[in-house]
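re: ur question from earlier - yeah i can do the single chain one, its not a big deal. heres the input i used so u can compare w yours
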Amino acid sequence: MQKQTADSGEELGRKSFIEEFYREHSRELWALFYAQCSDPDRAYDAVQESFLKFFDHKGEPIRDPRAWLLRVGQNWLRDVARKKVNSSRQLVSMDEFAGQPDSAGSMLEKFEQQTQIRSALKEMNEDDRKVLVMKYALDWSTAKIAAAMDSNAAAVDMRLSRARRRLAEILVERGFKNE
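and the output i got, formated as tokens:
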């Protein structure tokens, strides 16, 4: 009986750890997965799949849960891309516009701009998308981006500069207007 209670306490502690880890890191993982696949729903699914596997993991202890989750999610996205599953996508639901203080016109303009930027990001290579997402969606420092990309700060600054320039070129080609 005491063994079962100890196992239950250990399982509750593990579950609590995973829930806290999810609250702290799921947004960041989502953004990185989004940079890889350019599909918000698929990126969310990758986060869920990663945490499900993390919760079910019974093997060797995981030394770096964030890196492990990132690897699992990236592998899942590659598998999905190979199978060409889930080709339909929904960028933003109209429910997100409900209750917003801005006028409907400005909300639609903002939605259109975001749609154009997402579409342009799809045309960029994966590393350029990743560096832009890490910098502007996650607000990471150059040093943190360099560590994540196994690079140095100077290389990240150069990649950011080129990625911003390329994104601007794509948007200008499409007639993007940003006053």
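The domain at 103-173 is CATH 1.10.10.10 (Arc Repressor Mutant, subunit A). not sure if urs matches, ping me
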